[in-house]
Design brief:
The protein is α/β, with parallel strands linked by helices. It is elongated. Helix 1 runs parallel beside helix 2. The chain starts with 11 loop residues before the first strand and ends with a helix. The chain has a nine-stranded parallel beta sheet. It has helices at about 25-35, 60-70, 85-90, 100-105, 110-120, 135-150, 175-185, 195-200, 205-215, 245-250, 260-295, 305-320, 325-350; strands at about 10-15, 40, 75-80, 95-100, 125-130, 155-160, 190, 220-225, 240. It has 13 helices and nine strands.
């Protein structure tokens, strides 16, 4: 009987390199993943990049490497597909699971073509990453297309969203979207791809733990024997040799321990907002430097009373729309104004 990804009651853990690059790289990484007690191995075979003339994946040869890993280690294997042709090759080499990437998920035509090719195929698990934009309907639509094709093992992957300001992350986690998906489809398992959200390996643990704490069903983590030498996404991949220790440091809450998952979610959302606030404040102070340059060139004073009163009055009015008290706005913007004056004064002295 087919061992489906979602069949186990244990957390789903999938690890491996962003891209299959060489036979030796895959062998070393697979060995580390197996030693860590992980049951699923991932590797990107086709890697279309935003711009051409960069590494776009090893192609079909990598599927042979995955097939050998499946035979040599106690691991199931999976890779990304973006076309019926990719799916056809995966079936040829006995790949256990496929995932549909964010960009493909955003295109209903592409998803439908893959869904059509899945008709009648019962022995492969399918995972669907969220689209780049935070739109639960687009994500759900892609999942439903695969489901209508008869897929018996369907899982959603949360990999973050491309917003104008992602704070310290590569992709904004925006946890509300996957949780809304979970609300709409309580039967659907959702795992997290902390690597793409984090963008930096030192942030992967934080994202992983948050996902587990708010009730996600598992993780897909990018690992590499030597990340600095990786041909794709080198900054976000963990050293595969450290994977066992990394997993040991995570807490996997039982069903009874998930009572406070809403509190964890709200705290994480506050953290995300605070990071964005810091980024915006930093941008504001950079604008203060540009203003200081103009004032210096035109022999204007740093402090402009009329401008300060205009800013404060505008923000007091806007604050009312967000139920923020006048005293709170005055206190916050007085501090911001003081810092702006300090930045402009220092710039004028340095010049």
């Amino acid at each position: 009987m087919k061992e489906y990804l979602s069949a186990s009651t244990k957390p789903i853990i999938i690890c491996g390199p962003c891209s299959a690059e060489s036979y030796s790289q895959m062998q070393v990484c697979a060995n580390d993943v197996a030693k860590a007690g992980v049951g699923w191995f991932r590797a990107g075979i086709w890697k279309p990049r935003t711009r051409p003339n960069s590494f776009e994946g090893i192609g079909e040869e990598g599927l042979l490497w995955l097939k050998e890993i499946k035979e040599q280690f106690p691991l199931k294997v999976c890779t990304e597909v973006a076309s019926p042709y990719h799916l056809e090759l995966c079936l040829k080499y006995g790949i256990d699971a496929i995932w549909i990437g964010a960009r493909t998920c955003a295109n209903p035509f592409s998803v439908q073509e893959i869904a059509n090719s899945l008709q009648g195929i019962k022995d492969i698990s399918v995972l669907v990453k969220n689209p780049p934009i935070p739109n639960v309907s687009t994500w759900l639509g892609s999942l439903e297309r695969i489901e209508k094709a008869g897929c018996e093992d369907l899982i959603a992957i949360h990999r973050g969203f491309e917003l104008g300001n992602n704070g310290i992350y590569r992709q904004s986690p925006d946890w509300r979207i996957p949780l809304e998906l979970k609300r709409l489809r309580k039967d659907l398992k959702i795992i997290c791809d902390p690597s793409h959200i984090a963008g930096k390996r030192e942030l992967v643990k934080e994202i992983s733990q948050c996902a587990l704490s708010i009730g996600f069903d598992g993780l897909m983590i990018e690992t590499h024997p030597n990340p600095p030498q990786a041909q794709t996404d080198k900054s976000q991949q963990l050293y595969s040799s450290t994977l066992k220790d990394f997993i040991a440091q995570l807490s996997f809450p039982s069903l009874l321990e998930k009572k406070n998952e809403s509190l964890t979610l709200y705290r994480q959302e506050i953290n995300d907002i605070d990071q964005k606030l810091c980024a915006l404040l930093g941008e504001r102070m950079q604008m203060s430097k540009k203003i200081a340059k103009i004032k210096l060139e035109n022999n204007m004073s740093v402090f402009q009373l009329s401008r300060w009163q205009e800013v404060l009055n505008n923000m007091i009015q806007q604050g009312k729309d967000y139920e923020l008290s006048e005293d709170f706005i005055k206190e916050i913007y007085t501090l911001i104004h003081q810092e702006s004056i300090r930045v402009q004064t220092r710039y004028s002295k340095e010049k």
